Automatic annotation (TrEMBL):
GO MF terms held by the record: DNA-binding transcription factor activity; sequence-specific DNA binding
Organism of origin: Pseudomonas vancouverensis
Lineage: superkingdom: Bacteria
Protein family membership: Belongs to the LysR transcriptional regulatory family.
Domain HTH lysR-type: 5-62
UniProt xrefs under PROSITE patterns: HTH_LYSR
Phosphoprotein is among the record's keywords: no
Protein name: LysR family transcriptional regulator
BP GO annotations: DNA-templated transcription; positive regulation of biosynthetic process
InterPro entries for this protein: LysR-type_TF_proteobact-type, LysR_HTH_N, LysR_subst-bd, WH-like_DNA-bd_sf, WH_DNA-bd_sf
Gene3D superfamilies in the record: Periplasmic binding protein-like II, Winged helix-like DNA-binding domain superfamily/Winged helix DNA-binding domain
UniProt key word Transcription: yes
Amino acid sequence: MRQLPSLNMLRVFEEVARHRSFSQAALELNVTQGAVSRQIKQLEDYLGVALFIRTPQGLSLTESGTALSPHLAQAFDHIERALQAVRVPNLRQRLRIVAPPTWATRWLSAHLRAFVQRYPDISLSVTNQMGHDSLAEIDCHIRFGLEAAHHCSSRLLVMERHIAVASPELFNGEQPPDLRQFPLLHILHDGKRLKVWENWLAAMGREDVDAGQGLEFSTLDQVIHTALAGGGLAVIDRQMIVKELANGSLLPITPVEVIGPYGYWLDVANDKQGLSKVRLFTEWLSVVSNP
């Protein structure tokens, strides 16, 4: 029997040695910096030597770490080549993603072409529901919420940036519509109205507008389409209406923008983090959501 430490421990060392950074290695591996630190400590305990030292210039390899690093990199290269040699050509991996419907339609769909072209061997399945029967099959969960989840790896992708908009037909020339004369459009989340209008009106210092009046809808897309049709005024995350703002089919009522408090979070179950398809998608998603 081979006397080897865990493969995951060695992979963590390879990433830290390559980046000379615990935090960058943690980002690459989609784990916490603390988890990386623990893996390195366990490997050092196993070997009985220090592998890294901290200097004023940053993290450096010790003599032992310098000796180990190239051999380990070559070993992983050999493993990768061996696996590719026996892998069925063009075998497609299916990546299953659950995402809010409007975010998937208006943001993810607009960016997926780049991902598909970059990773042609990964097939995507994007749905907006996560039933108990399929929970174990989900690889990535994009969630609309206020804070990180505690049962998995959870990172903030982007905060909402709310602006008040209306159809051009509700404007009187360049004069924006009176907030008291048109219905306010509201979106429901978990059966309750999101307080986007209350937050926006507070930022404006408007106490003369009844935030409770108006129409409510179950999806943001319904709010957007009603606003496009001139059915009322809406406070919407500007990242969801890029096209409408660009072509003038929706116009800002004022330039005031309110950040958060809601955002879109990427949740990945702990047992999915090591999958290459998940790692590639999460790395790509983190880059394109924060250009």
